[in-house]
Amino acid sequence: MADTWLIVGLGNPGPRYETTRHNIGQMVMDELADRRRESFRAHKANARVVETWLRPGGAKLVLAKPNSFMNVSGGPVSALAKFYGVQPERVIVVHDELDIPFDSIKLKTGGGHGGHNGVRDVAKALGTPEFPRVRVGIGRPVGRQDPADWVLDPFGAKERETLPILVADAADAVETIVDSGLLSAQQRFHAPR
């Protein structure tokens, strides 16, 4: 399965969290599945998956949404990587990022977790931080709101106006990494609009 990519959207399970900032990674998985008219199904690795293709004849994509809570995402990600025979350099993790302004995307491979417990747990479970990341900016709360509460709040009305564009951009970034590599994707998505 040399040309298989595992694409993981981090988030929390259940309807309570579906529309929260912390679940933007899973929103991106929904977008990628919708583009291919596919539906998620249960997988024994404690996740929901879609097995599909970048395009006919292209790379195989395994889109995944762990059923675990964010801070313990590593177990399902590691189990899926083993099941599909995917090395960490082909595991793309899509997650929310407090330190990036809302409506921005940054891409990188490796480095620290920046305080993101889901990314920390995935790096621990994979045995390396060297995996590509699509970091979707949610910005920091204004005032004194605790960031831990902020990420578990739904997007505000103003944010919801541009959220579909942000989710589509993040999905495009995933497809570009698979198709053209990280550097090409960075050149496209790090440029100001």
User: In DSSP terms, counting alpha (H) and pi (I) runs of 4 or more, how many helices?
Assistant: 6
Helix content: 25-40%
Strand content: 15-25%
Give the distance, in angstroms, between the N- and C-terminal Cα atoms. Answer: 36 Å
Care to count the β-strands? 7
- Give, in order, the helices and strands: EHEEEHEEHEHHH
Biggest sheet character: 7 strands, mixed
Task: Name the strands of the widest sheet in spatial order.
Answer: 2-3-4-1-5-7-6
In oligomeric terms, what are we looking at?
single chain
Tell me, what's the shape?
globular
Average per-residue pLDDT, rounded, comes to 92
The structural class is: alpha/beta
The rounded Rg comes to 15 Å
Q: Which regions contain 5 or more consecutive residues with pLDDT less than 50?
A: none
Task: Please describe the topology of this protein.
Elements: E1 4-9, H1 24-35, E2 41-43, E3 47-53, E4 60-66, H2 74-84, E5 91-97, E6 105-109, H3 117-126, E7 132-137, H4 147-150, H5 157-180, H6 182-189
Parallel strand pairs: 1-4, 1-5, 5-7
Antiparallel strand pairs: 2-3, 3-4, 6-7
